[in-house]
Here is the input.
Amino acid sequence: MTILQIDLETYSSIDLKTAGVHRYVEAPDFEILLFGFAFDDDPVTVIDLTAFEDIPKDVMDALRSSTITKTAFNAAFERTAIAKQFGIECDPLQWRCTAVHALALGLPGYLEGVAEVLKLEAQKDAKGKALIKYFSVPCKPTKTNGGRTRNYPHHAPDKWEDYKAYNRQDVVVEREIRRKLKRFPVPAHEWRLWALDQRINDRGVRLDPVLVRQAITCDEQYEARLLQEAREITGLDNPNSLQQLKGWLGDRGLETPDGLSKEYMPVLLDAAPDEETRRVLELRQEMAKTSVDKYNAMTRTICADDRARGLLQFCGANRTWRWAGRLIQVQNLPQNKIEDLALARETLRSGDFEMLELMFGAPPFVLSQLIRTAFIPSSDCRFIISDFSAIEGRVISWLADEEWKLDVFRGHGKIYEATASRMFGIPFETIVKGHENYKYRPFGKIGELACGFQGGPNALAAMDSKKEIDPNDYPRLVKQWRSANPNIVKLWYAAEEAAVKAVREKTIVKLKHGVQYRYEPGVLFADLPSGRSLAYVNPRIKPDPKFDKDGLVFDGMDQVKKKWMSHRTYGGRLVENLVQAIARDCLAESMVRLDAEGYKIVMHVHDETVLDVPIGTGSVEHVTEIMSRPLDWAPGLPLQAAGFECDFYQKD
Here is the structure.
């Protein structure tokens, strides 16, 4: 099979990082500057389009050919840019993405990081960032540069030659990475799923630009009002200035911590010497709430046809291959609890902000509630939204053969009540509203949410956000939950034992339901029933000082610190990886089935799909039936989906 390796350098006045590639290529000044490529093992060629060099015919033919595989690191960028520049379809089925391949193996998602971790002889050119900044993004007009807003090759010929060398080196490094990773191939069915993911991202989801603009205007007016009130009380030029405000509070006898952060606010409010000081602190607190980050992100990413694209990153969530949010971050949208969302959003759209506040409360709260509703169906369509019920609970019960739970999921599905019943030895039928035993339901719910992956009292405390449980009861409840779920407890220890044994003996250790741990030089794989595998790079066994036993250590990206480092893991975390990965595969299978039935997926969030369905076609019943179908590779796993229709995105 012939492979065409590609890397582009481009220019656009739109910021790629914050607006995304689809908006980026829509800019009137977008253009491909350099086109680096190599067929198979051929030398790398760089075509300088700014010098009016032509892309060779064999390359243009290859771009259109269904028999030649095109590949790039973060291929979504190259696909989109080439399609825009040359007006040709870049079918994702004909492409492969080296970044996705790296992510699938637990490696970093950026070129430089992968090259470093793999210790390649070929490394990314460190000059790149400065060259990209010089040639590929607008520059500030100055007297020195003659007031221009863009640098062209003739402005710095030497730098331009460096840029061409940088482009050439990127092709070299990407090809070396591809060669290095090919001994651990991504399954063919996952590349087909990636192609579907690319079509979903290319399709995008429609936004309501009126609502988005009005939300930003409403926030600006509300913040100006708060600021003006703070000015009138304090007499300060800028009450938003931390230094000025601290001085004013100090004059009132109120000593404040450095940052005036929200965790100190309750104490400061209690210590306020008078009503004016208290009100200023309240205003400060309220101004901190006014955030329209999501609406601003929508404004940056919205394309000419009012659609936002590229919102989901395939294999973006570390280790499990789950999708991650990009740009607008649809994976962490606030929930909506306002009863009449339709009235609230229409009031906002009309610009009657006073009425909006009168009916629904302070703007920060209302605008947060309405973020989801900015996503709307295409013309003459409605959304069908469907999600799995308790997917992780079902998967872990199936994986552990916790039969009583599987019976619950196959029957009434009231897992919180059933768990409470087993934990406290009380009749299931008495855990209903109005009965004194209903007080035990929160214990069942929080236990289910906190304890499934070997969580202890701290996990219960984190999940008990409403503080429904006496903290002194946490240790006892953990024991009761574990006693009620003996097979899940056994699964934690079995998974850890299997992973450690696989690494120590450099062998394969079977778990159950098609899951096994398999050691290959440099990588521990957790093979899943769906036919793909999770990867743990550079696994080794090291003593665990906390528990006086040997434990598994591996290397990976730290999602908080954003750096490559060592991680220690244990049974509960290994099971969490397995469960979340299998749940992801359930969603993936459903997406493939929905697509095959002609449904257009515009978005998916965790275990939920959002479909753009023409009025008069399709149905909620059909969609949920598709998502509830058994999976060939998971016999006995009881899936159940529920859904609804709506005219704007929302939580049911």
Q: What stands out?
A: The chain has five domains: 3-186, 209-305+334-370, 410-484, 488-575, 581-646. The chain has a mean pLDDT of 94.
